[in-house]
Amino acid sequence: xxxxxxxxxxxxxxxxxxxxxxxxxxxxxxxxxxxxxxxxxxxxxxxxxxxxxxxxxxxxxxxxxxxxxxxxxxxxxxxxxxxxxxxxxxxxxxxxxxxxxxxxxxxxxxxxxxxxxxxxxxxxxxxxxxxxxxxxxxxxxxxxxxxxxxxxxxxxxxxxxxxxxxxxxxxxxxxxxxxxxxxxxxxxxxxxxxxxxxxxxxxxxxxxxxxxxxxxxxxxxxxxxxxxxxxxxxxxxxxxxxxxxxxxxxxxxxxxxxxxxxxxxxxxxxxxxxxxxxxxxxxxxxxxxxxxxxxxxxxxxxxxxxxxxxxxxxxxxxxxxxxxxxxxxxxxxxxxxxxxxxxxxxxxxxxxxxxxxxxxxxxxxxxxxxxxxxxxxxxxxxxxxxxxxxxxxxxxxxxxxxxxxxxxxxxxxxxxxxxxxxxxxxxxxxxxxxxxxxxxxxxxxxxxxxxxxxxxxxxxxxxxxxxxxxxxxxxxxxxxxxxxxxxxxxxxxxxxxxxxxxxxxxxxxxxxxxxxxxxxxxxxxxxxxxxxxxxxxxxxxxxxxxxxxxxxxxxxxxxxxxxxxxxxxxxxxxxxxxxxxxxxxxxxxxxxxxxxxxxxxxxxxxxxxxxxxxxxxxxxxxxxxxxxxxxxxxxxxxxxxxxxxxxxxxxxxxxxxxxxxxxxxxxxxxxxxxxxxxxxxxxxxxxxxxxxxxxxxxxxxxxxxxxxxxxxxxxxxxxxxxxxxxxxxxxxxxxxxxxxxxxxxxxxxxxxxxxxxxxxxxxxxxxxxxxxxxxxxxxxxxxxxxxxxxxxxxxx
Length: 796
Description:
By secondary structure, this protein is α+β, with helices and mostly antiparallel strands. Helices cover 51% and strands 17% of the residues. The strands form 5 sheets. It has a 7-stranded mixed beta sheet with strand order 14-26-25-24-15-22-23, with helices on both faces. It has a 6-stranded antiparallel beta sheet with strand order 6-5-7-13-8-11, with no helix packed on it.
């Protein structure tokens, strides 16, 4: 239940200083039923003082607002929403994504249960009203071909023989019976349409509820007049027709559509709920030498957690004892378990295999990778891609236009309709109001985005928002960083050479002592090799990085250089003694770090980074999709070309410094290409930001969620293929949804108005209009659900 803003307990806090940075809040809006609703709420928020940006998502009911805290507050924003006639709720303090999902699921289950009862009541009443209305209908009095009326006439024939007394009943009495049957059902099952329409009218707007309320209300008022004063109608040459059964069928079909739509919308969030359900509710911790089963919220960083075979890992942590195969498919989409042992990290929600593990908790609760993934997916599902603006513009004028068409329909039927059937125009006008519901238009985009982001999360493809999901389908060029993207990103030292015999250890020690200050993968490999050999490393007195070339510093009182040939040559070091050896190693694909002390060459360290096993498959699939793939690296050209040959690439941009990577991407964009940059999310950040789409490679426990618009959790290049295929499928589904929603209204409104009546005598009753309207919304949601079955090509 939404708490009115006036009843919220407010804690007094100091007012933010003028000029303070903008804040963001996500409100939960209730009561929205169509695109006109969400558009009105968004306009109200955007016009509110202090609001810099607002986005309202019909599908999720989320209103994301960026505002100036010195001017307005979250509670005032809730009040703004409530003044437009809808409910608004602030997020609960400290509520986890899992709790939020559980609460939403309970609310959806309650909504479905209520709708189920209302649909049952309305359908039963509509059937009864249809039977009781049969004696009041004469085939001769029904102009044209109306499918619904034809069905009623077919029912009337056998019923006349089975229940002849019904057809001899007093027509005036039957009208009163129908009134007594319809009135309570309209209040119980259809009351919400009228109350919401009243709220919208009070706040100067109109939406789907307005169309249904006006259409149903017109049918009921006309029927009430014919029931109370049939003589007046006859005196003026009009048949005292009643439309109680039509009003009940409208309510029944609209509610049935709402019920089916709510069920389908519930299924669109199934992927996220499955992810949220992976984390267990409790954990076994070892405290004081005893095993204690405690609720997950009581587990603290540093706790020692026991994970038995077959259990899910409750926290992000590092294995301190035991070895087991862990199923990480919830992160990476790959079904093959990965062996985890002492010193290796495991992630909450992954499934332990046959071995017991003792894990030291590193991240718990909202800080785990799983919780971060859930938050990212929720944010993406609440986002609005640019194509949504099409629906918003249409929704802004749609309802007033429909009312105008309905009035025009009534006037034309009244002036030019069949003799004695002027009131048939009322039924046609009601049909126009009912059939033209903008629900399908409002659901076309958000349903597809919600299903697609959930599907992507299941496969380890995290999309930061609807804009990235929409934009990725247009990618023409993929730029791949070499280290950590095309390669494993775990380089290892393969060779150490020294000019002085037996000085290899000293060369490695000096290189590692200086490189320990660097975060580059090559530096990490050198330091790891030195530690594995038990070398005691020195502490640099001075240290400086030469981007794309190496490092320099002062160690033990001497100037030390560790880097590529360009760095040493520019520093005046003679490379002659090792030039041939370095060239040979580079030709074999190694990265060579030359070591010099006081500008005198001592030796070299060769490092090799193996190509990812799935890279060749991924690149082949990308090229089959018509994409150009470019390898971009700061490494030497020979090493880059070796990797390019192994993965099947022809175009290589090598020896590119980090600041030049952004320029390289910009150059491709100036050629008219839509470019995606795939990097490790750290040293590739400028290039990722420059690209039309930045795709960051994650590694399960280290997900670079902030670095790119799309993150591949598993660090597998096939995820790029999956992301683009997902975007293309989503783009296609959105276009289909928008096309059919538009075509539906373009075709259905003239039919309901009676455009074909002069040609073939076809007209649509309000009941048929209600069924068609319900079907349109359900068809859009069902079409979006097809994205759950999209094959994303993760095969080898």
